[in-house]
Amino acid sequence: MFGFKIILITISMVAGLVFFSPLPAYTTEGEGGYAGAYLRVGVGARPLGMGGAFTALSDDATASYWNAAGLGQIKDPQVALIYSSMSMDRLLNLATSAQPLKRIGTFGVSWLNYGVGDIDGRDMAGSPTGNFSDSENAFSLSFGKELSSVLLIGSSFKYLYQKLASQQATGYGFDVGVLLKIGENIRIGGKIQDIASKIKWDTDSRIEDKFPIVAILGISIALKTTPIRISADMEKNGNQNAEYHIGAEYWIIPSIAARLGYNQNHITAGGSVVIPISSVNLQLDYAFAPDVLQQSPTHQMSMVIKF
Question: pTM value?
Answer without folding.
Answer: 0.85
